[in-house]
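Aim 2 progress update. The chain analyzed this quarter is reproduced below.
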Amino acid sequence: MDYDYNIATGARSHTTEGLSDFFRGIFTWMTLGLVITGVVSYLIAMDKPVVQYLHTHIILFYVLIGLQLAAVLLLSFGINKFPAYISEIIFLSYSALTGITFSFIFLVYTSQSIGEVFFITAASFGLLAFLGYTTKRDLTKIGNFMTVGLFAIMIAMVVNFFLHSSALMYVISVLGVVIFLGLTAYDMQKLKQIYLSGSFDERKETVMGALTLYLDFINLFLMLLMLFGQRRD
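Predicted structure tokens:
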């Protein structure tokens, strides 16, 4: 869902409290999604037979990824076609599915390094979210550039699936950090402009905003984990 950034066009008066409430709702849902993902991921990872079954049956793993993709597409393109509570259920279901597919990180990386990278992610995400919220500079061009970069690294990851190049994965991870930090700032500004435009369903847009920032956060976390995570022996 694209919105051109023009703070002077079509905007009606809104209180600071209203804007704060809008973002409070977004971050509440985003945090709930992250908590669900973390809890589900940890619980599955603690049951070694289950997690090994999930990740040795590659077809099942791809089915789960397909369900994740379907949930994101359903929210992105169908959010105006069903009630808000359906959007909320889809978002929470997506968060749980992500927890299942994320369970592998506890097999690959130490718990300590996962925790450390999580706090690095939270700090970096918070800083760029704040900059995106407060800056008066139009970030549309940056957002478009980062979106192109996102598709580029997705293609590179597919290629590297066959090449198994550690050097290419390192480059992808570095670029991924830059891209998702840039998208975080852009998405925060875009959400602010959506609120200021006044023409939206707040409950639905709160869930969609939560999904957008959730995706920025978890992908930033994955890229940082690939760079700084300590692998198990």
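Confidence is low (pLDDT under 50) at residues 1-13. Residues 54 and 61 are 6 Å apart (CA to CA). These observations will guide the mutagenesis experiments scheduled for the next reporting period.
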